[in-house]
Amino acid sequence: MRRFLSLSLALAVLASAVLPGTAGAAAADPPAVWVNEIHYDNAGTDVDEAIEVAGPAGTDLTGWSLVLYNGDTATAAIRYRTLALSGSLPDQSGGYGTAFVAAPGLQNGDRDGFALVDAAGTVVQLLSYEGVFTAADGPAAGRSSTDIGIAQSGAPVGSSLQLTGTGRGPADFTWASGTAGFGQVNAGQQFADPNPPADECGAPATPIGTVQGSSATTALAGQRVSVQAVVTAVEPGLGGFYLQDPAGDGDPATADGLFVYGGSPTPAVGDAVRVTGTAGEYVTSSGASSQTQLSGSPTVGVCQSGQALPEPVAVQFPLPAADALEPLEGMRVSLPQTLVISEYFNYDRFGEVVLGLPLAGQSRPFTPTAVVDPGPPAVELAARNALSRITLDDGSTTQNPAVLRHPGNGQPFGSTNSFRGGDTVTGVTGVLDQTFGAYRVQPTGPADYAAVNPRPDSPPAVGGSTRVASQNVLNYFLTVDDGTTAGRICGPARNQECRGADNADELARQRTKILAALGGLDADVVGLLELENTPGVDPAADLVAGLNARPGAQPYASVDTGVIGGDAIRVGLLYRPSAVQPVGGFQILDSTKDQAFIDTANRPVLVQTFQTAAGGRFTVAVAHLKSKGSACAGDPDAGDGQGNCNQTRTAAAAALARYLDTDPTGSGDPDRLIVGDLNSYDHEDPIRTLREAGYTDQIAATGGEFAYGYVFDGQAGYLDHALASASLTGQVTAAGEWHINADEPDVLDYDTTFKSPEQDALFEANQFRASDHDPVLVGIDATRATAAACYGAAQQVSAYQPGTAGTGRPVDRRDPAVALGPAGSDSGGRDAVSLGRGGQLTLAFTRPLQNLPGPDLTVVPGWPRILTDLTDRARVSVSADGVSWVDLGTVRGYAAGTFDLGGVSTARFLRITDTSGALPWPLSLLQDGYDLDGVDVRAGCA
């Protein structure tokens, strides 16, 4: 068994000698008897009124009494009864005991009380409750009472007011309410010297390693134990201090440090102490963590001061296992590696940040599906990330502290001493604990801090003659949220919660930051997300007014959509009329346009075409897909890293691609840009679906694999996208995020909820932390569509049912794929597909046929091989959905057929049905029906 002999002080001599200056070197004289518990009032008719006294065991109470006083007149309280005490006090705990006397009719008005009088007639105590009085008569005449500082009015039957704590006299305890226990030692009360005599310092003690044990919880829970060790940290903000045995027990599976909750007197760092307390676990309400500690009013004896502290244990990341830190709980540790400040969501509330070790090639930890594919790769990376992070705390449980500790240099956080996500910290030293769901380091000094991610004053240089941006404005509501159910006045039906600012001051601060961000972006078109969606409320127009009021502003306008969809928030569009003009009206993608787009989960998409002064057209689609935060019916988290509702988002992405292919605004131009919060990282299914539909991820194209614009759970990635169609991609000059939000602690945002006045004063009227998402900016050199871009061809064979040739034999050219692509692309038309007599071929188009001025499609026959080919003919029909068909006319085998879509606005399918009549014998033997080379179609460009 370990002894305190491991300290530099030779404690072996303490068993028989007392060191000078040691706490509790001489026992005090036993204190007088004192009042220990009372009950004077309960709900209903008063019952079980009583008074308990306590004192050293064996004290004879013969001749002692309790004189009861009525203090209706504060300056002249009169006695109304005397209760005699008798017998002697038993030894119930530590040489002390209790006795009580029933006191029916004990007064319960203001300023009532009693005097405890010893056998010689001396008043030992004069106590009162609910006020102070001066006794007018009896043994306490002329004396003023002491109010116990706690009252009992209408308390439950079976309760009392009682002393708790550790000590040997009334001054050592505190009055509290609790369950009555007259004639017993009170719950939470211990009769012991709070400063044990020094000759106990060398006595046998329980090793801290034994208290900790080799599992997550102590095997000694509920047992009173004594430990001896050196104080390594005193944390008033945590309500206690840390101990560590410098020598340890030699078992690497057990921790040699321990937290002591409470304890009196409070020792100093470097004190060698003996502590007696109750072993147990501090378990947070979620049950996610459990810290072994001593509590139960621990007693603390200082044996020697100025002891050297144990050397900290160096912790290296990634950890070998999730529980690798358990054997270090309560011990001094150091973090010698350079770690990245990767999460700061709880910094304002609890003063904590998460430090992470980036993986090879990374500048910071990344969300798995931002850099690897969903499934096993993402699951494996998530596990590696979890082993490469730790919480750095501030040594306090105070919420929204007035002074925030800088996670690097340890000085107060402020405008001249701030930090950003991505900055680094090296050489953290502190004590390891496990609370509130995580292992965390309580720092005991500063570390080396490096500001490697400075604020960008201007957005990225993306070039281009036209700039398109998107910004999630984090619930910009003009209707303030009063936080009550009655205040559910927002949304299309005015029955939803208003999600934005809680008061006018917050709204003004929020607006200031958003305007600073939008003004700094200086974009010609801006997609906005999370705008209030209430009838008659137009946040987009409000932002336009604010932007246009800025000095030197180039005026903006907004697309006036009114309410969109059924949610409390919607998307919106701003544009600069001097740079672009809307072409036609806006369009909305919702469930009525495509049932696969679930608009009760995804917000409806806003689509608008713009034209530049040079004549270039492009269509912007602003999308905000379902978040990962809550499950969708039948679409839960699959555990592959993509979170909740992945199928819902993927179906919406596919529907969006289909919808844009129909050119819903009638732009006549295939240049399209999807922007907004798709709530999907770039390796996830929704983004893959859009890439497969021909869209290019412009953020990845410019910023590479490790681009980011959002931080969640200490991991970076981007949810806000800029996806360009194939024809537009060549016109994009660059794209990127302006890192003004994701890297900033949210203590700097507009919100005042929970913030202390000192935190509130950190607000600055600038663009930083205007939202939690970084804005996206895209540069475009928009041009008129080229002739090649105006035309298209079939991309897919939807169906092929060949007829027969001659007298019933199969046709000899039966590969329908040769009809795909532009006509003449396969051997100059000499390679064609034969329909056969009565045969039919259906082709599908990724880019839909457009009904534009002039001919819309040309059906080109194969090169005639024999005379009979000149007599072949077929009917041509088109369909938007593959179900309802519109006949366009007949095409013949000797010449191309040109057609106009007529009453059809767009079509995705084209069907050719052979209608060749039978020729006379022997020519019928040669017939093989209509031969098709290909179909050239107009797919854009007016």
TrEMBL record:
Give the InterPro entries listed for this entry: Endo/exonu/phosph_ase_sf, Endo/exonuclease/phosphatase, ExeM-like
- The Endonuclease/exonuclease/phosphatase domain sits at 502-773
Its signal peptide is 1-25
Name the source's superkingdom: Bacteria
**Database matches in Pfam families:** Exo_endo_phos
Any single GO molecular-function term of the entry would be: endonuclease activity
**Which keywords does UniProt give here?**
Endonuclease, Exonuclease, Hydrolase, Nuclease, Signal
Matches recorded under PANTHER family:
ENDONUCLEASE/EXONUCLEASE/PHOSPHATASE FAMILY PROTEIN (AFU_ORTHOLOGUE AFUA_3G09210), ENDONUCLEASE_EXONUCLEASE_PHOSPHATASE FAMILY PROTEIN (AFU_ORTHOLOGUE AFUA_3G09210)
Q: What is this protein called?
A: Endonuclease/exonuclease/phosphatase
